[in-house]
Each structure stands twice: as C-alpha cells, then as structure tokens.
Sequence to fold (325 residues):
Amino acid sequence: MTKHPSRSKMWLLAAVKLAIVGIVLWAVGKTLLRGVVTLWKDDWQLHWPWIIAAGVIYLVGLLPAGMFWWRVLWVLGQRTRFLDTMRAYYIGHLGKYVPGKAMVVVLRAGLLQPGGARVSVAAAAVFFETLTMMAVGAFWAAAILAVWFRGHWTLCVLAVGLMLAAGIPTVPPLFRRLARLARVAKSDPETQKKLDDIGYGTLATGWITMTVCWGLLALSFWATLKAMGIEGLDLIRDFPRYLASVSLAMVAGFLSLIPGGLFVRDGILAELVEPYFRQLAIPLAADVAAGLSAVLLRIVWLVAEVVISGILYFGFRPRGPIDAG
Fold:
C-alpha cells in the first residue's frame, strides 16, 4: 500500500520552500537597493548598451563553471540533464546574498533533487566546483600581482593564502577523504566507488574551465568601465589588471562569508583599480570612480543573476534523470 505524505508535512515543506524564497528575495533586494542608492548619489552618465553587454558577458562567463559542476556530478554518478544542471547552477547564485553562503548549496542541491540527484552528492559537487573556482581565481590574482603590480605585495600574499585555503581541499585524495568523512555516499556503495573517479584529470579540467570563466568575468568588468564612459581603456594592455582585480576581489569576498562579499569585494576591487584611474582622463576623483566601478559591477552582476534565474525558474521545469543504460 502506497503511503502518502500527511497534509501537515506537505504544508511544512511548502512553508520551508516559501521561507527560502523569502530569505533569498530579501537578501537580494537589500543588496540591490544599497548599490543603487550608492551609485545614484553621484551624477554619472551610464551607457546602457555597455551595461547590457557587461551583464551578458558575465552570464556567459559563468557557463564554464556550471559545465564543470555538471562534469563533476557525472563523475560522481549523478546523471543529471544539462539544462536542469544549468538551471540549478544559475539560480543557486542568488543564495550567496544570504548570510553564511550555505543557501547556495541548499538551492543547487535542492533544485537537482527532482531530477534524481542525491542531495549529499550534489552538495559535495558544489563544494568541489566552487573551491576550484576560488583557487583558480586566487592563483591568477597572485601571479599577476607578483609579475605586473609588485607594489601590491600585501594583496599578493593575501591571494596566495586564499589560493591555498580554497585549493588544498580540492586535491583529489584529500577531497575524497573529506567526502567520506562527511558521509556523502552514506550507504551507497556505487557512489563510494565513484568518489575514486575524482582524480587529477577532473581537477585539471576544472582549472582550464575556470580560467576561461575568470577571463570572461574580467571582460565583463571592462565592459562595465566602458558603460561608465571612461576614456583611454586598453583591453589588451590592461587585461591583467582587470583579471587580477576581479578575481582577488571575488575570492576574498567569498571566503569572508559576508553576504555577496559586501564591502570586502568592493574594497579590494576599488583599491586595485584606483591607481589605474589616476592614469586616465575621468571627470571624477580616482578614488570616487574606483568605488563607483565596484558598486556598478555589483549591480550589473546581481541584476543579470536575477533575470537569468527568473527565466530559468519559471520558463523551464526539471526533467527526470538520464537513463544510465
């Protein structure tokens, strides 16, 4: 005889889902409002085609990271569909605006569960993907600061520390051990075996895809500066600065556990680009322009995340898992 969930459990589940949605909307709305208020305190002429371009480039830039998460899921035996995985990946980004960042894992793993993915395994894949992304970003920041911008030695040391903090747990033998200690596979022998498939080849794939990801995020920052009407930008010459600034700011903001990396991300980004703005012809003081660029980038990326999340959540419904046979 089939057992149906009690009405009280159904109401409880609905209430939990509603609470999660409410928390995410509250956190996102508060972050967006703070950014808009800060930006509009100054009279700044924005170029909207470049704003749109920056948002689109950002979303495309996240795609390699999402694809790597999908790859890790498959390595771990979770036969999720590509579109379902991308849907969960992009929507999950809204969870980083909730204190603690745990909501990212909750959203992504929860959205994949109807497609047949084990929540614990999906969560482990989230950690592996995210920490790999942070390690790669910190690596490039450290390398660029050490070679091109030696005056920022404190930030270079910070980047090295962040790279180690994020990268060491992704070393395959250590990650497999941590996953087993966390009982990711629990009583599933098949998943236990699949953990052994997380090797250096998987990690190398992550470093390649994440390098592409960070490069596109740096390109999005350049488009944001173009949207501000700043003259004298040279994409080829200044790309290392864009890459180091965006990657270090995001990694430090993420590991701070502050919702959306608020203040930490903006402060580091502004510090790295302020000397750059002193060399350009801009109508505002360099420190003001640097702060505004950080705020505008946050708004552009946040709005892009909200838009794509709405499209994917309401426009697409998850399907069942792919038959492994």
Summary: The chain has one domain: 46-315. The CA atoms of residues 115 and 121 lie 13 Å apart. Residues 46-315 form one domain.
